[in-house]
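General statements about sequence and structure are easier to judge against a single worked case. For one protein, we set the task of working out the structure tokens from the amino acid sequence alone. The sequence in question and its structure tokens are set out directly beneath this paragraph.
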Amino acid sequence: MRCGVDKFKKDTTYKNIRAAQAKDIQAKEKLVEDNMGLVISIAKRFYNRGYDPCDINQLGVIGLLRAIDNFNPDLGLMFSTYAVPMILGEIKRFLRDDGPLKVSRSIKQTAAQITAFVEKETKEKGVSPGVVEIAENLGISPEDVVAAMDATAPPESINSTIGNSNTELSDLLRANIDEGQIITKIDVKSAIEKLDSRERIIVTMRFFMDKTQTDIAKKLGISQVQVSRLEKKILEKLKRLLMCEN
């Protein structure tokens, strides 16, 4: 019985999406009404950022409307699954652009091209393209793809935990270093900025995006062994930079 209810709800959602895409205002309003619970549940994660919760909710609705306009019912996907990253993206984009971290115009343009390509491929194929595929289609290097995605993503805290563990990035960077050689407060961000492009990509993917060495190897088109060697060298370099700064 439950399966039949879910199918009816899915079919009704598809019907309303097709109508909304055909400029039916009432159908679009019904979709927004039906999905406000989803929007608010996502928006609540950002209520403590110093903005009015109503404004955050409205940003979520903008993302939902984009999802309605771009969703392809013929792929048979759950609309909510497709809508979640669109809602999140709209909120994060505002917080990023309105925040203290400034990104160059060229990187923003590259990031916008990446976003448009990913949305197009996801809509048409139902699968999000990887870094290498994005790079090939946009005619840029995989490193530039990751760099643009990283630069336009919300900044991570040095106290962020890695994966499901209780380990913080600062703990990793301080590993095997004599505590007497460095002070308690470490400007990790400054040290990371002194790495070259590929080194920053590996650090970001490994410690901020929780990617495995194999994941990084596939994305960058190198071997897992190379990633392992580079990772060790990068951590040693960061340790030296941190000690020099302190």
Remarks:
- Residues 114-153 form one domain.
